[in-house]
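Standup notes
- DV: blocked on the single-chain target, sequence here:
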Amino acid sequence: MATAATSSKPRKADRISSSREDQIFDICNYTFLVLLMVVTLYPFLNTAAISLNQANDTIRGGIYFWPRLFTLDNYAYVFKEASVFHATMISVLRSLIGTAVTVFCSAMVAYTITRQDYVLRKFVTLAFILTMYFNGGLIPNFLLIRELGMLGTFSVYIIPGLIGVFNLIIIRSFIDGLPESILESARIDGAGDFTTFIKIVLPLCVPVLATVALFTAVYQWNSWFDVFLYNSSHQKLSTLQYELQKILQNSNASLSARTASDAFANADNEAANSVTPMAVRATMTIVASVPIIIVYPFLQKYFVKGMMVGGVKG
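- DV (later): unblocked, structure below
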């Protein structure tokens, strides 16, 4: 009996072998994750290094993770225009107002088309989905905006994209997964549709609303083409992205006569302190990306669904 009991226990050699296999697996796993992290972060770190490096020195190449000749001249060149700071305020207002209004309106429409007692819900859903496949085109859209009197106004940044069909589908799918008993109990207590939407549905949809808010905020922050189409002649309504585009165009125009060999030959004189389109482009990328990078960690925790815990009491 003792021999049988002893033989049933794992031998020391087996435990050592298992431990070595776990160590090898951990080493391979950590090595892969580190390489994946480097591959993921390298483009951003390389762009940041170029933006902080002397522009003409960047033409030599060899800039990877950190600048070789540190300078803030590239950022000074981008922010030397007073219009950039006003444009930044417009971009912030556009992102905040546009995101809040778009998320709220999309959620309200999504809740409406999930109600079984709404007889037109299938028709409305189909009408929204068709807009994802068919578009009037650039010129009809411009004529529509002009006829609506939104040219040269701040509302052109908000109203045309008030309802995002992709966001609408995401929110509708989430609402469809909510327990019907919660909504029925609200109706039994005398709550109307709007009260149910505000006090019941919206709090339960925080994860999906945060996700949609991030998508919308990124779109609003990075959008510049609508500024070019509708408000290019109104400097007071220009956004940061559009101003950065103009700075890049001016940089390309003013420095197009200079070649890489000229910049290399004059690297020791005053021309070495000038900027290049490559440096301006890298600086613009960092300036446009940093706000989103700062906001993202605060919304990431809402990406995981879990707000339904305790929603239905037994």
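- Follow-up: The CA atoms of residues 57 and 267 lie 7 Å apart.
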